[in-house]
Design a protein that fits this description.
This protein has 125 residues and is mainly alpha-helical. The chain is extended and about 55 Å long. Helix 3 runs antiparallel to helix 5 and helix 4 (53-64) crosses helix 5. It has one domain (34-125). It has helices at 2-6, 13-28, 35-51, 53-64, 68-93, 102-114. This is Putative aldehyde dehydrogenase (NAD(+)). GO terms for molecular function: aldehyde dehydrogenase (NAD+) activity.
């Protein structure tokens, strides 16, 4: 069992940097995935989080000594809530457009910035 852990490839800084660089090139090109693909990916992430909730909680205890309740409240629940929020935002963005008050628009932008949903991602956005 110990030898299988030693042979496992590590996702190192160089590989991460290359992946992010490739993603940024794709993002900057304007080539994007369809709305349906993005929603399917978000749903898959939610399902994955729910399916592996126990393993996530165990890893947080092992790495950070977080209790089960603390892990669930601070990590698993927040993660699920963020992805649910993104899903709702995408659904609403695909709805027919209509005029809104400037104050409503500014409030929406402020809310999205507060929860870091715009301006920071290159993978799903």
């Amino acid at each position: 069992m110990a030898s299988s852990k030693l042979n496992k490839k590590v996702f190192d800084l160089k590989e991460a940097s290359t992946t992010v660089k490739d993603l940024r090139i794709t993002f900057d090109s304007g080539k994007t995935r369809s709305y349906e693909w993005k929603v399917s990916q978000l749903k898959a992430l939610l399902e994955l989080t729910e399916k592996h909730e126990k393993e996530i909680v165990e890893a947080l205890y092992s790495d950070l000594s977080k209790s089960e309740a603390e892990s669930f409240i601070q990590e698993v629940l927040n993660f699920s809530q963020y992805y649910f929020t993104i899903f709702v935002v995408y659904r609403n963005l695909s709805a027919p457009s209509f005029l809104v008050s400037v104050f409503v628009f500014i409030s929406l932008i402020y809310m999205l910035l507060e929860i870091n949903l715009i301006g920071f991602g290159v993978v799903l956005f």
